[in-house]
Amino acid sequence: MALTAETESRLYRSLRVAAGAAAHLVALGFPAAVAVLARPGSSEGVWPVPIPLPSAPQFSFLMTEALLIFSPETSLLRSFSRKVRVRAHWALQLLALLCALLGLGIITYNKHLNGKSHFVTWHGLTGLLAVLYAGGQCAGGVLLLYPKLMKNWTLAKLKLYHATSGLVGYLLGCASLMLGMCSLWFTTAVTGASWYLAMLCPLITSLVIMNQVSNAYLYRKRSQH
Question: Is the pLDDT score of 203 beyond 90?
Answer without folding.
Answer: yes
